[in-house]
TrEMBL record:
Keywords: Acyltransferase, Transferase. It holds the Pfam family Acetyltransf_1. GO terms for molecular function: acyltransferase activity. It comes from the Bacteria. It comes from Rossellomorea oryzaecorticis. This is GNAT family N-acetyltransferase. It is an enzyme of class 2 (transferase).
Amino acid sequence: MLIRYKKAFEKIAMGLLSFMPNEKDLKKLQQTMKQYETEDNWQLFLWKEEDIVGLIGVYKTDSTLEVQHISVNPSHRHEGIGKAMVKQLKEMYAESIVKPSSETASFFERCDEENIV
C-alpha cells in the first residue's frame, strides 16, 4: 500500500533512496530529501507491507507525474513491488499521465515488456 512520506520516515526513505545510482553521495541525497520535503510539486510515497520496503518519488505538474525515483529494499526485490507502486500511483492519479524520468525509464521499459504497467 502506498502511503505519503512523513518526516518520521526520513531515515528509511533516505536508505531506500540511496539505492538509486545518482543518490549515492550523502550531500546529493540530503538535497533530494529536502526537495521532497519543501517543494509541493515533488511528492514522495512509501510502500508499506508489514514494514516499509519501497519508495517512489514523483515530480507533479498539472497533467503529468514524472517518476524521479523508484527503489525497493534489496531483500524484497523481484516480488513485483516496484510494478505495484507504479500501478497504484496510476490509480491514485487517474487524471494524470504517469511517465518515467531518464533515470527510471529502463524500469518502465521492463514493466512494459511484461505488460504490467
